[in-house]
User: Fold this.
Amino acid sequence: MTESMAAVLAGKRLVLVTGKGGVGKSTCAAAIAVAAARGGKRVLLVELGARPVAGELLDGVPPDHEPTIIAAARFPSLWACRLDERRALQEYLLETLKLKGLVKLATENRVLARLWQAAPSVDEMSILNALWRFETERDPGGRPRFDLIVVDMPSTGHALSMLGVPRGALAMIRGSSLAARARDIDAMLHDTNRTAICIVTLPEELPVNEAVQLADRLQRELELSSTHVLINGVAADVFDEGERATIERLAEEDSTARRLFVAARRRMSMVSQQARRIGELKERLQARFHHIAWTRARGVGLIDSIADALTRA
Ligand SMILES: Nc1ncnc2c1ncn2[C@@H]1O[C@H](COP(=O)(O)OP(=O)(O)OP(=O)(O)O)[C@@H](O)[C@H]1O
Ligand SMILES: [Mg+2]
Assistant:
C-alpha cells in the first residue's frame, strides 16, 4: 500500500505550505499539522501572516511569538506560534552577532529598528532564521524539540522571494557569522529529506497555472523542488457513468426532465471541467498529488476532515 500524504509529510522536519492567495494554504497547513499531531508527533504550526487564523481554525487561543499549545484538550502535542518580525529580528541578530548590548540598542531604538527593517530582506531572513532554530532545537536529552514544523507560508510571489533570501544574502555577507547562518538555512531548505515544499492549488485555470509557474520558478531560480501538491476543493463525482448517460439522455428527450436535471448537469459539467484541469496540472508538474474534497464543514470540523483525507492512502 502506498503511504498517505500525511505520513509522507510527517516524515519530514519542515513542511512549507504555499500557493496562490485564497486557495486554502492556512487550512491545509493546519490539517497537515493536525494529522501529524494525531499520530503522536510533537508538531509546531507556524503562522506568518498579518491576519492570524490558527487559533480560530483549531478552536484554540490565538498563538503568540513563542510556541504554545493552543488547544490542549483536543491537540495536546500541537504547538503554534505567530512570528513577530521585530522579535524574530532581535533573535536573529543576537544568535548570529552575539553582541547583546548592541543588538538591544539597535532593535529597541525605534529609529534604528526601522533602519534595520528597511535593510533588504532582513525580515525574511529573520523569519527563516526562526524556522531554522525550531528545526535544530534539541532538548537536554538530545531529542528534537519539535518532530515536525509546518509553516503557513505567504502566497506565491512573496514565498519565492523569501526562499531566495539566504542565497542572495550569501553573496553580500561572505565570510561573516551572518553568512554561516545563511548557509545553514539554505542547506536546510535544499535538503529534501528535511524539508518539503507543499503547493496548494484549486482545480481551476488560474490556480493551476500559478502552481505550475511557482514550481517551475522554485526549481529554475532557486533549485528547490516542490514535490507535494494538494489539489483542494475537488467536487465529488456523485454520479457513475451509467447515471450520467441516463441523465443526459432524459434531458435530451424531454424538456421537463431537462429542467429537473439542471443542477445535476451543472454538477456533472463542473466535475468534468475540474478533471480536465487536474489532468493538465499532472501533465505539467512532476509531483506527488493529493485531492481534497470541497466540504461544508467549517472551523475545526473542516481541519479534522482534511486531516482524515490526508491520512487515507
Ligand atoms: N476543502 C475545503 N472545503 C471547504 N472550505 C474550504 C476548503 N479549503 C479551504 N476552505 C475555505 O476557503 C477559505 C480560504 O481558505 P484559507 O484561508 O485556508 O486560504 P489561504 O490560501 O490561506 O488564504 P490567504 O491567501 O488569504 O491566506 C476559508 O474560508 C476556508 O475555510
Ligand atoms: Mg492563509
The two ends are 7 Å apart (CA to CA). The pocket of adenosine-5'-triphosphate (ligand 1) is lined by residues 21-27, 49, 155, 232-233, 292, 294-295, 302, 306 (CB under 6 Å). The chain has a mean pLDDT of 90. The beta strands are 14-19, 43-47, 68-69, 78-82, 148-152, 195-201, 228-234, 288-293.
